[in-house]
Amino acid sequence: MATSEWTGEIGTYLAAMGGREGDAAVDRAIALAGGALSANEYNIDVPTKYVASEGGTEFMFEDGVLHSVLLHGPGSQDGAYPRPSALIDGLSLDSGREQLEFVLGEPHRSTPGYVKYKVGDCFVNFTFADDVVKDVQVQRTDVGADAPVAPAPAPEAEISGELATIMAALGTEYGSREMGAVVLLTGPNAREHAMEDGKAGRYVTFGDSGVDLLYRNDRLVGATVYVSGEERDLYPRPEKLIDGLRLPARRMKVNMVLGSPTDRSSDIDLYSVGEIDVMFDYADKYVRTISVAMPGAQAE
């Protein structure tokens, strides 16, 4: 199927791309999504607004302009689009990747975790879970076009920024030079306490900087950074934790910047960065904490 021949409900979402909130084409797309709506606003470089529907659809506006629509497929744990056979004529979202590519033809870009098609001036990205469509994202621009694509068993995220400094300290001894670099970020006010489960190890908590470090056998095996919520003080520079991702951010924005996670649940995205696990924990679809750990650290 040529990309210019895509028909079905996808056409309504494609037609809305680049429209302003309140435009007729945008209103038609939101009405088609169906269900009750919820909206959240956040100033991420530019004013950003997310509108989510009970119909398994999320809209992202930047400075009042619709930039992307995320439609959850059968493989998602966030509620699936209610008409999987109506989104694209001739294709059901229940189809596997092989059938999808057979119907839609050669993609614009393909990795082990997703396939992307150029449709007119827009882009449509499909991600998969167990060979079933997990999400369909209609994008105004080719998000990730400059990212290097290398064949791999599973996609790996690349992370730079202040979180990378914390990640670099994993595996090092207490008092190491890498630990000193972390203290420069958090400040020196720390409190140590033993693990509550009786296991060998200790926590070092930087309470006023929202960072917890977990040590076992005097080596750093895990860290948690708090970026939103009211249960404790938060990291003071969330916008500098991950280059290109202004935190706290909504889940859709994390996935747009870092790509598809290695694994996910209803409120967690897990990414693999080299040998380090990076876990994003969400509350109300916004990042609450980011945890980094050496493999198996949580199971020890």
* Strand percentage: 25-35%
How much helical structure, as a percent, in the residues? 10-25%
Low-confidence stretches: 147-154
The rounded Rg comes to 21 Å
Give me the strand/helix succession. Answer: HHEEEEHEEEEHHEEEEHEEEE
Structural class by sheet pairing and helices = alpha+beta
Q: Cα distance, first to last residue?
A: 51 Å
Mean pLDDT: 85
The best one-word shape is: elongated
How many H/I helices?
A: 6
**Count of folded domains:** 2
Largest sheet: 8 strands, antiparallel
In what order do the strands lie side by side in the largest sheet? 1-2-3-4-8-7-6-5
Number of strands: 16
Protein name: Linocin/CFP29 family protein
Describe this structure in words.
This is Linocin/CFP29 family protein. It comes from Georgenia alba. The chain folds into two domains: 3-139; 162-293. A hairpin with a 7-residue loop joins strand 9 (191-194) and strand 10. It has an eight-stranded antiparallel β-sheet, with helices on one face. It contains six helices and 16 strands. The longest helix is centred in the first third of the chain and has 10 residues, at 24-33. Helix 1 (10-16) runs antiparallel to helix 2 and helix 4 packs antiparallel against helix 5. The protein has helices at 10-16, 24-33, 97-104, 162-168, 177-186, 251-258; strands at residues 37-44, 46-53, 57-62, 65-72, 109-110, 114-119, 122-129, 132-139, 191-194, 202-206, 211-216, 219-226, 263-265, 268-273, 276-283, 286-293. By secondary structure, it is an alpha+beta fold.
Question: What's the quick description here?
Answer:
The protein has about 300 residues and is of the alpha+beta class. It contains 6 helices and 16 strands. The chain has helices at about 10-15, 25-35, 95-105, 160-170, 175-185, 250-260; strands spanning about 35-45, 45-55, 55-60, 65-70, 110, 115-120, 120-130, 130-140, 190-195, 200-205, 210-215, 220-225, 265, 270-275, 275-285, 285-295.
